[in-house]
Design brief:
alpha+beta; Deoxyribonuclease I, Chain A; seven-stranded mixed sheet; six-stranded mixed sheet; 7 helices
Length: 335
C-alpha cells in the first residue's frame, strides 16, 4: 500500500512539474503572433525628423543581432545597463544614417535575454520613426524565459497594407514547436509615390531553403503593382564573390531574386574591398546583407557602414526612379 501511495505521489509530482513547464509554453504558442504582422504609429517620437519627401528615398537595412553586440550567444553581450547603452548607440547610428525606411533583422520583442525590451519600439522612439511594422519569427515561452524575435520595418512615412511572407520551413516540427524565419512587406507612401518595402531574414542553415524562399518572394513581387525594395540579411552571396554557395542544382538565392524577381543589386568590386563586406563586422569576409530594388528604380548611392555595434554591418542606399542610364554603370559603386 505504501509503495502504491509513493508511486501516486511521484506520478502527481511529475504531472505538476509538466503542467508548470508546459502550460505557459502551450499558452504562448496558442497566442503566438508569429503568423501575422503588427503595425504601430507613435504620437510623438523621441527625435523630431523632417518628413517632407526629397527627390531621393534613403533606405537602410541592419541585422542588429538582438542587441548583443559582437557576442556569440544571445545570453551574452553584457549586463542590462551595457545592453541598453548599446541600444542607445544603435539608435544614434540610425539617426546618423538618416534613412527614411529601415529594415531591422534579429529584433527582440520582450525576449528574456534583452531585458524584456521591445527593441523595435525602443529604437523607433529613440531614432524618430513614427511608423513601424513588427513581424515575429520565433515566439514561445518556457517557465520564466521568453524567446520572441523577428524583423521590423521602421518608417518616417505612413505604412499600409502590411502582410507576412510565409517562407519555407527547415523543419515542420520545429516550426510547430518554436516558429521559423518569415518575412514582412508593406506599402510606404513617399510623396506621390508608393513603394512596397520587403523585409527578409533568410535561413542561415541551407542554400536550398534560402533559394526556395527567394523563388517564393520572386512570385510575390511579380504580383505586386508597386516598385519594390527588398532588404535584409539574405545569408547568401552571388557567384563570383567570397563564400558564395549554390544548391545541388546550381541555383543561388541572390541570382534567383535578381533574375526571377526582376530586381537589381549593387555590383561590388571583384574581389570586393573590405569596405564592401557586411559580415562579420569585426573581421569582414563576405557580403550577405543586401538591398535589392525593382528595375524601375536605381541606386544613386550605396554603401556599407563601418560599425561594431552588431556582428553585421548596416547598408545605406539612396534610390531614385530609373532614368534610362545603363544599369551596370549605375550600380557599380565600388562600396
Amino acid at each position: 500500500m505504501k509503495n502504491v501511495l509513493k508511486k501516486r505521489k511521484l506520478f502527481l509530482a511529475v504531472l505538476l512539474l509538466l503542467a508548470i513547464v508546459l502550460l505557459p509554453y502551450l499558452w504562448s504558442r496558442i497566442n503566438s503572433r508569429a503568423n501575422r504582422v503588427l503595425v504601430f504609429e507613435m504620437d510623438e517620437p523621441g527625435v523630431a525628423v523632417a518628413v517632407e519627401p526629397s527627390s531621393k528615398l534613403r533606405v537602410a537595412c541592419y541585422n542588429i543581432a538582438h542587441g548583443r553586440g559582437l557576442a556569440e550567444s544571445n545570453w551574452e553581450g553584457g549586463d542590462a545597463q551595457t545592453r541598453m547603452a548599446r541600444l542607445d548607440e544603435i539608435a544614434d547610428l540610425l539617426v546618423e544614417l538618416d534613412a527614411d525606411v529601415v529594415v531591422l533583422n534579429e529584433v527582440d520583442f520582450y525576449a528574456s535575454w534583452s531585458n524584456r525590451v521591445n527593441l523595435a519600439e525602443y529604437l523607433a522612439e529613440k531614432a524618430g520613426y513614427r511608423y513601424r511594422v513588427e513581424e515575429r519569427n520565433l515566439d514561445f515561452r518556457v517557465l520564466l524565459w521568453t524567446w520572441r524575435f523577428g524583423n521590423a520595418i521602421l518608417s518616417r512615412y505612413p505604412i499600409s497594407n502590411p502582410q507576412v511572407i510565409d517562407l519555407p520551413s527547415y523543419s515542420k516540427v520545429e516550426t510547430l514547436l518554436a516558429g521559423k524565419k518569415r518575412g514582412a512587406h508593406c506599402e510606404v507612401a513617399f510623396g506621390a509615390s508608393i513603394y512596397r518595402i520587403v523585409g527578409l531574414h533568410l535561413s542561415h542553415r541551407s542554400e536550398e531553403i534560402r533559394e526556395r524562399s527567394a523563388g517564393q518572394v520572386s512570385e510575390l513581387i511579380a504580383d505586386l503593382p508597386q516598385a519594390c525594395i527588398v532588404m535584409g540579411d539574405m545569408n547568401s552571396t552571388p557567384p563570383g564573390l567570397p563564400r558564395s554557395a549554390t544548391t545541388s542544382e546550381g541555383a543561388n538565392t541572390i541570382m534567383t531574386l535578381t533574375e526571377n524577381g526582376h530586381l537589381t543589386r549593387n555590383i561590388p568590386n571583384n574581389p570586393p574591398g573590405e569596405a564592401e563586406l557586411t559580415f562579420r563586422s569585426d573581421s569582414p569576409e563576405m557580403i550577405i546583407d543586401w538591398i535589392l530594388v525593382s528595375e524601375s528604380l536605381e541606386f544613386q548611392s550605396y554603401r556599407v557602414v563601418d560599425s561594431l555595434l552588431s556582428d553585421h554591418r548596416p547598408i545605406l542606399a539612396e534610390i531614385v526612379t530609373f532614368n534610362g542610364s545603363e544599369p551596370e554603370e549605375l550600380l557599380k559603386t565600388g562600396g
